[in-house]
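Hi all, long-time lurker, first post. I run a small reading group and we've been trying to get comfortable going from sequence to structure in the token notation. Rather than ask abstract questions, I figured I'd post a concrete chain and ask someone more experienced to write out its structure so we can walk through it together at our next meeting. Sequence below, copied exactly:
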Amino acid sequence: MHVIAQTPRFVIRNFSPEEEDIYLALFGDKEVTLHLPKRTLYENRQMFRDSLKEYAEGKVLGRWGIFNNGSKEFIGICLLRPYFDDTGRVEIGYVLKRKFWGKGIATEMAQIMVAYAFTHSDAREVVAVTTLENTGSQKVLEKAGLARLDNINRDGDELAFFSLKKAVG
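-- Answer (accepted) --
Happy to help. Here is the structure in token form:
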């Protein structure tokens, strides 16, 4: 199993095919998905299966599972993907099970993902978006070093936009 990062509290790693059900169950909690784009079970299943294909292709960016280092319990997912404008930007995203909110895991994970993007890809900038109401994620992104810029519109929704440019030199 390919490990992206490991801390004393959790490991970020590739999913195994057998973990599809725990991945899909994450999207069954309405509070967890409140600030996410609305997707069907089929779409979420397809994203999981696409991730498995991307692992096999050796892609640097992707979608990974976050698991408790001791109990191996599933905590959530994180992702890095090219930002839609394809200008050297990489977008970070994440979803955690509700029981892991407020424990600093998202902030620690976001810091790791930012560092990973800058060291393992040609990203010149890491960006993120949240709904305007998702103040918890906004705080996470700021603690991870991203600055809030002007809001953007994506698919008809106004979103908070965050950015961190790679240090030069």
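A couple of things your group might point at:
The two ends are 34 Å apart (CA to CA).
The chain has a mean pLDDT of 93.
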